[in-house]
Amino acid sequence: MKKIFERPASLKNVPTHYCSGCGHSIVHRLLCEVIDELGIREDVIAVCPVGCAVIAYEYWDFDCSEAPHGRTPCVATGIKRTHPDKIVFSYQGDGDLAAIGTSEIIHTANRGENITVFFINNGVYGMTNGQMAPTTLIGQKTSTSIKGRDPVRDGYPIKMSELLAQLPGAKYIERVTVSNPANILKAKAAIRKALKNQMEGKGFSLVEVLSPCPTYWGLSPKDAYRRIDDELTKHFPLGVIKDI
Amino acid sequence: MAKIMMCGNEVIGEAAVHAGCTFYAGYPITPQNELTHYMSFRMQEAGGTFIQAESELAAINLVFGAAAAGARAMTSSSSPGISLKQEGISYMAACQLPAVIVNMMRGGPGLGNIAPSQADYFQATRGGGHGDYRTIVLAPSTVEEAWDLTHLAFDLADEYRTPVMILGDGILGQMMEPVEAVRRHLHGKGTGLNPNKPWALTGCKGRKPNVIKSLLLGEGELEELNRILQIKYGKIESKEPRFESLYTEDSDLVIVAYGTTSRIVRSAISKARREHLHVGMFRPVTLWPFPETQLQKLARKTKAFLVVEMSAGQMVEDVRLSILGQRPIHFHGRAGGGVPTEETIVEMIRDILKPRSKKRVYA
User: Residue A44 and residue B203: Cβ atoms within 8 Å?
Assistant: First the structure.
């Protein structure tokens, strides 16, 4: 009998700590499928963020490092410059990349480091009980914006991918989502391209994934996925932002 | 042997290359800039990596990554910048990553000034960042000694898998002194990656994946890491204290000083000895581990101690903890970039050993 579907070898056969309907599990799986398909599991070194994916190394079956909050691209750069022949990526949430690590991601992209960044944007701090993130939409209720994000008090949802695309060092930036099967396939293709770019020495690549957080959006998983298509993609349009 | 002139900052850079450092990241701050300048071209010559980081936070975390990947890695800064690096130093201590951090201290607190200082002694020897950890702290007093201690720093870092700090000050960093010309290995290559790092992140070919982490959420896991760290620190405390003694055999007064200050004290002692004053010096070379037992032994031979520092009084606390009230401990310190003078120290020696009136005795 021919096996047509199986767990990727790069993904450990263990239950994750993610909430029901969380997008991290899907992105982890896509990432591991691509790593298997590219045959690079033994060459990959990942840097995990501080945030919900902090223990991603419990699920990934390849070399991993933690990093202080937001310094993830620096740790990845230190590894990549030491082992230019290895495939190094950072995996970061919106708190890690768009708030505390803004300086680090900008300068890593600006130096054109040949690493890959996976930016999981769910617009909220999931790990610490659902506070407002820099990417939280206007009017969205969180535990630090209980009446909804007010731009006068809280500023505006930041578009990191568009901001980073201004930098000559950034070679490929695409925003995808995992809101439905068609989008999941597009997300997988973007992940593959971002890793292949690094293998080909093209330079800094980043894939932003709009990801659901049913728990802190206060929605059922089904409604959370629908909210991505109905609301998130209006502010954060999907597609290739830069590819040179 | 021919000699050439180099400043402390440059010598540390050259020594690092010679010791096999292949990764340096730094951010400009006075008075350590000569080291960053030097590494910017020297790393390239030696086939290593130089990154001018966007901040001290970035620099220390670039070093974190390189160290996790198995490289001999170094960063340098001065006091305010070292405060920023403490986040990464704590993480590296917890993750048991070897690295060398150079602090050429300047006057503080705050932005302070760019004059020499020793006011980061507490920060360096007590861990500096959050959590129960220590870093080995080496304090060179001459440019020549900076060469040796830089090599030692990399060796100790690798041996104990822990961050090591080289603690100097603006004078040591910027003053030029003659060093053996052979110590400038132009175009020499670093020795590269140390193969004896089975824990390093190199890709999991032929082995189980390695993970570098300090997050330990399981019941008792973090307590166990702390236990392991404390055993390691205990071993360092028993094996690694280093010091220099000068005339301590026949001294009624022993001056305790380190780094640049010890050189001023040395001159003052020469002068006092010509006046037949029995004074000597105990110079800690490792500030942590502090050579406590060795200093304690002197309490039996000498009548009093004098601690001289470029701070409001920091190392003096370790001296008190070592002497445990057995002998009087006098103190002279200048903070905020002030430098103790030879004259003041000689006068203090005279006053302590031949008090003219009770008022003049320093306590």
Answer: yes
Chain B interface includes A17 (CB < 8 A): no
CATH value at residue A206: 3.40.50.970
Q: Exposed, middle or buried: residue A230 (CB in 10 Å: 0-12, 13-18, 19+)?
A: exposed
- pLDDT tens digits, residue range B182-198? 555 544 444 445 668 99
Whether the Cβ atoms of residue B194 and residue B73 lie closer than 8 Å to each other:
no
Shortest Cα–Cα distance, A10 to chain B (Å): 10
State which fold the B3-203+227-238 domain adopts: Rossmann fold (3.40.50)
Of A47, A62, A66, the CB nearest to B215: A66
Q: Is A41 at the interface with chain B, CB within 8 A?
A: yes
The amino acid at B280: G
**Helix residue ranges per DSSP H, chain B:** 8-18, 33-45, 56-68, 79-95, 121-125, 143-160, 170-174, 221-239, 259-274, 292-301, 315-323, 342-353
- Which residues lie closer than 8 Å to A182 by C-beta, 6 or more apart? none
A187 belongs to a structural domain: yes
CA–CA dist B182, B197 (Å, integer)? 30
Q: Give the span between the Cα atoms of A225 and B262, in whole angstroms.
A: 68
Both structure tokens of B16: 């690092």
Number of domains, chain A: 1
ipTM computed for the complex: 0.97
Beta strand B99-105 pairing with B72-77: parallel
Give dist(CA B124, CA B138) in Å, integer: 10
Which residues, in sequence order, are CB contacts of B324 under 8 Å at separation 6+? Answer: B296
Sheet holding B243-246, edge to edge: B243-246, B279-284, B253-256, B304-309, B329-333
Q: What is the extent of the structural domain holding A165?
A: 23-237
Domain with CATH 3.40.50.920 in chain B: 244-360
Q: Which two tokens stand for residue B221?
A: 């896991």
* CATH T-level topology, domain B244-360: Rossmann fold (3.40.50)
H helix intervals, A166-213: 181-199
Angstrom distance (rounded) from CA A82 to CA A67: 16
pLDDT digit string, tens, across residues B199-254 = 999 999 999 999 999 999 999 999 999 999 999 999 999 999 999 999 999 999 99
